[in-house]
Amino acid sequence: MSRRLGVGLLGVGWMGALHTRAYRRLTDHYPELDVRCELVAAADVGESGRRRAVEELGYARAEPDWRAVVDDPDVDVVSVTAPNALHREMALAVLAAGKALWVEKPVGRGLAETAAVAAALGPGAVTAVGFNYRTVPLVEHAGALVAAGALGRITGFRGWFLNDYASNPWGPLNWRFSRDGAGSGALGDLMSHVVDLATALLGPLREVVAVTDVAIARRPYAAGEGEHFATLGPGALEPPGDDVPTGEVENEDSARVLARFASGASGFLEVDRAAVGPHCSLGFEIHGSTGSLSWDFERMNELQLYLADTTGDAGYRRVLARPGHGDYGRFQPGPAISMSYDDLKVIEAARFVGAVLTGDPLAPGLAEALSAARAVDAMERSAASRAWEAVA
C-alpha cells in the first residue's frame, strides 16, 4: 500500500503552483516511490490565493495564517514559496515542528538569516532548497564529464544569468527591490543559482572581487504587491514622468564577479535582472586542458562539447539529451524530445520525497544554500570594499 505524505504549502504564487503540480506528477514519473501526496492545506495572505489553492490546485483547505498549516498534524512536508522576507521564520517553524522542508532560494535575506536556519537543522531532518537547475539532465552529464577527467585539468569557468524581468522602468516597486523584502537583488535572486551550479560542477569558491550596479534607480509604486514579470505602464522603455509616484530601488540590478575556486581554477560570474534582450539566459562554460563544454538554459536540452584530438578537424559537437542522461528517460522515451522547466521541479520533488521516505542525505539542501549564501555575502562585501574578499 502506498505511503501517504501530507503536503502543506506556504505561499500560493507561481512557484507554489509549480511545487504543487510536481507533487501531483510523482506517481507518473517515479512510480517506484510508491507514495501518495495528499494536498492537505495551503496558506496565503490574499483571498484570491487561498481560493486558487482550493479550487485550482486541489488543497483540502486554505488558511490566512501559515502557522495553521505548519502546526497541522496531518502535514508531513512543507513547501515554502512565499516572498524572501518570510523564508527564515517559516523555515525555522517547519524544522521546529519536525517536518520535512522544501524551501525556495534564497533561504534568508542574506548570510545571517540563512545561517540561522542551517543552525536549526537537527539530526534526521530532511531539507531541499530550490536550486532546480542542478537537476537538468545535461547539467548532470556535464558534471559527470568533469568528474571523470574528460576535460583534463579545469582552468576556467564562465557562468551567467541574464534576465529582462526588471528591464522595464515601469516595472513596479515590489518587494524584490527592497532590502527589507528581499535582501540583496540580483545577487540573491540570480547569482545564488550561478554559484550553486559553479560549486556543484567545480567545487567551492575561495575568493571573489565584485562590481554591482543599479540600472533603474526609481520605480513606480505598485497598487498591490506586484507580480514578478509585471509592468504598470505602456510597455515603453522611457521612465515614468514626474507625475507618477516612484520610490528608490534599494538593491542591485546587476553584478559582475571575478572568482577563484579552491581547486585553483578561475572564473567570471555575471548576473543582470535588467538586461534588455535576454529573457532567461542562464548558462556556463567550462574550459580544461583537454576539452571544453558549454550549456545554456534557453537551449536546455543541448550541450556543446569539445574534446581535443589530433586530426586537425577538432571542434565542438552538439550533444542532445537522451535516456541515460540523468532523469531524462523518466520524461521522454528517445533523444532530442524537449523537457521543460516544470519537469525540473518534478525531479526536485522526487528527490525530496525520496529522501523523506528513506532518510538518505539530499543535495542541494540547507548546507548547499549556506555555501551559496557565503559566496554571495563575499560578493556584497567586495562590491563595498572594492577589493578581493574571501568566501567563508
TrEMBL record:
InterPro entries: Gfo/Idh/MocA-like_OxRdtase_N, Gfo/Idh/MocA_oxidrdct_glycsds, GFO_IDH_MocA-like_dom, NAD(P)-bd_dom_sf. Residues 6-120 form the Gfo/Idh/MocA-like oxidoreductase N-terminal domain. Residues 141-293 form the GFO/IDH/MocA-like oxidoreductase domain. Keywords: Oxidoreductase. Pfam families: GFO_IDH_MocA, GFO_IDH_MocA_C3. This is Gfo/Idh/MocA family oxidoreductase.
